[in-house]
Design goal:
about 300 residues, alpha/beta, Spore Coat Polysaccharide Biosynthesis Protein SpsA, Chain A, eight-stranded mixed beta sheet, 9 helices, elongated
Length: about 300
């Protein structure tokens, strides 16, 4: 019986995958339980399957290939849908998460009787922009009373936490919202965060910005709350400005012309268009979901 399933999303991993396999082989020889690895290739042009077929793999694994690049969170969710072991772990493919560190998460789960354990890093070996973006996102969510300060992609969970992904075949922008909702008790465990092996991260600055905007729009009410507050502030400001012009007209009989009117019209129109755009994006997403146009296509699924 398999004790642990490990989900590893792959993207541009041809260079690092042999090292990752060797590291998993080494850990498998030293640990006292059995594990299965689920590799989910996220629509990479050059498949990693050939490397897996040629490599010496001493553990059972499953290779799943998606038809296109859906993103790391969606690939992880697909991997979780295949898990059957009582314990499930997720790690990155770049060896920044050492498989040997999983033993710390397992020990922490036993000691705290938690359903979900995140490996936290004293020092993140990411770029400055990526670390800054993470801090800004966590600050935004803190205003909504949601604590994402300790979440990482290095996770250990019980099978009940991942049960909601069994029937899901739709893209997921932010997997943490589902995990935290399903877990009764969460905890964290300090682990080592190594430097990235192989090529530079596939996350560009614009890719990270796009990902952050998706999280803000589809996994928080921050933007809607911002529009509401900004609308109220604008309405109050325009009211007092109107009172000021009315006062000048009554007391001084001054004629302000059309400048103030034109400026206010363009300003209010811009706000309305922005608001309609945000609401329209929500409606578009609902329409896509109801018509099942966002189903994930799996082009390859092989177990060894």
């Amino acid at each position: 019986m398999i004790d642990l399933d490990i989900v590893i999303p792959l993207y541009n991993s041809k260079e690092i995958l042999p090292k990752l396999i060797n590291r998993l082989n080494e850990w498998g020889k030293s640990c006292d339980f059995s594990f299965n690895v689920i590799f989910v290739e996220d629509g990479d042009v050059d498949s990693s399957k050939s490397i897996l077929m040629k490599a010496t793999v001493s553990f059972p694994y499953r290779f799943v290939r998606l038809s296109k690049n859906y993103g790391q969170h969606t690939a992880t969710a697909i991997g979780l849908s295949y898990c059957e072991a009582p314990l499930i772990a997720t790690i990155d493919d770049d060896l920044q998460h050492d498989p040997f560190e999983l033993e710390k998460l397992i020990a922490c789960m036993k000691a705290t009787d938690s359903d979900l354990v995140f490996g936290t890093f004293g020092k993140k070996e990411h770029s400055f922009l990526r670390n800054l973006g993470s801090k800004v996102l966590k600050l935004i969510f803190s205003y909504e009373k949601v604590d994402y300060s300790s979440i990482t992609s290095f996770r250990l969970m019980r099978s009940n936490v991942a049960v909601s992904f069994k029937k899901n075949k739709k893209p997921i922008v932010f997997i943490e919202e589902y995990l935290l909702r399903n877990a009764v008790k969460k905890s964290t465990c300090p682990v080592t965060h190594a430097k990235r092996e192989g090529e530079s991260s596939s996350y560009s600055f614009w890719g990270l910005l796009k990902f952050a905007l998706k999280i803000i729009v589809f996994h928080s009410s921050f933007l809607l709350n911002f529009i509401i507050r900004f609308g109220i502030l604008t309405a109050v400001t325009c009211f007092f400005v109107g009172c000021y012009f009315f006062y000048k007209k009554v007391v001084y009989d001054s004629y302000e012309g059309f400048s103030a009117l034109i400026v206010s019209i363009f300003f209010s129109t811009g706000i309305l268009l922005m608001t309609l755009g945000v609401i329209g994006e929500y409606i578009r997403r609902i329409w896509i979901s109801q018509n099942e146009l966002d189903q994930i296509m799996i082009v390859e699924d092989e177990q060894r």
